[in-house]
Amino acid sequence: MASIRRHPNAKTRWQVRYRDPTGTQRTKNFSRKIEAERYASLVEADKLRGAWTDPVMAKVTFGEWAADWLRTTVHLKPKTIEGYESLLRKHLLPAFEDVPLGHIRQLDVREWVSGLSATGLSPSRTRQGYRLLGAILRSAVESGHIPKSPAFGIDLPRIQMNEMRFLREDEVDHLAETITAPYETLVYLLAYGGCRWGEATALRRSRCDLLRTRLEIAESVSDVSGQLHFGPTKTYRRRTIVLPQFLVNKLAAHIATHVGPGPDALIFTTPDGSPLRNGNFNKRIWRPAIEQAGVAPLTIHDLRHTAASLLISEGAHPKAIQVHLGHSSIAVTMDRYGHLFPSDQEDLAARLDARYEAAQVSHVDKLWTEGSLAVSPLSG
């Protein structure tokens, strides 16, 4: 228990002595006894609630802790680190860099979110910033710097989903015929294989088992500040895609003509054999092709949506679509593409109607059996 005494070296002051949850003896001095008593009560209450924090640790600024957090979070991909650094630099540090962790209040976070929205920052980017702030503050809680995170219960701007674009089979054919050679096979792989751009452009010869009509998706490439980074897929999982035979034939012809002999040779490259960069490909190859094919506006990622649409139209089960596209869970698949599945509401309504009609017939039959219904003498 916290105890109060007169300061041994200053009789006009009062000293609170207590042990923190780790057993360390601590003291704090006050000029008035009532302040010391109040502090002692708060210390004991915080210890009981598990909300006690080291006063010295709580003085660490957000900027200092954010730098330590980013430096010691080892599982992040280079692209993710680049995104976090951008969010910190542009949005989090201007508001919280010099603020001690223990001084950040929920109201401060609420005002910060409101301010981001007021500046015109997109709802998606605002949510990304809030999630990063929450992650950094949660780690401060786990380390004992603060008792709880102030980033909770905050109303966030709603995200309006952009309308997805889907190509018909004939439009995919036309785009493939229009795009600069030899990238027609890449169009088909994206539209029917459902690969992400980074997965398709990281595909290697050794992962194409065309005799068994299969591709192993085990790697992805991203462009981070002008540097290409090869690493795991977005979900950190490998998956196998089973290809339709027409795509197997196109890939076989492409590999025989355009791909080097080594097992690590990339399937799709620039004319000089370098890895494809999304920005350059988009500008030099993709945009001219979609304009000429008459399918603009269309993003490269829309071909992945096209793959989902084609699978759903063929009656594929959501689980099979999840595996094919490499989603982290079936919930992700349904959130993004659930609206494309055939609606069962009309069928359910018809079934309920049939049950009602059957119940009416059963009720009438029961009344006849019990003699509750009689034939009218006036009936013909």
Which bin fits the share of residues in helices?
40-55%
- As a whole number of angstroms, the C-alpha radius of gyration is 32 Å
Poorly predicted ranges: none
Spatial separation of the terminal alpha carbons: 98 Å
**What's the name of the CATH homologous superfamily of the largest domain?**
Intergrase catalytic core
Number of DSSP E strands: 8
The string of secondary-structure elements, in order, is EEEHHHHHHHHHEEEEEHHHHHH
- Assign an overall shape: flat
CATH class of the largest domain: Mainly Alpha
Using the coordinates shown, work out and report the CATH topology of the largest domain.
hpI Integrase, Chain A
Strand order of the largest sheet: 1-2-3
Percent in strands: 5-15%
Structural class: mainly alpha
How is this fold's topology laid out?
Elements: E1 3-7, E2 10-19, E3 25-30, H1 33-49, H2 55-58, H3 62-72, H4 78-96, H5 106-118, H6 123-142, H7 169-178, H8 184-193, H9 197-200, E4 208-209, E5 214-217, E6 220-224, E7 227-231, E8 239-242, H10 245-258, H11 278-293, H12 302-313, H13 318-325, H14 330-337, H15 345-370
Antiparallel strand pairs: 1-2, 2-3, 4-5, 5-8, 6-7
Helix pairs in contact: 3-4, 4-6, 7-8, 7-11, 8-10, 8-12, 13-14
Brief summary:
The chain is mainly α. It has helices at residues 33-49, 55-58, 62-72, 78-96, 106-118, 123-142, 169-178, 184-193, 197-200, 245-258, 278-293, 302-313, 318-325, 330-337, 345-370, and strands at residues 3-7, 10-19, 25-30, 208-209, 214-217, 220-224, 227-231, 239-242.
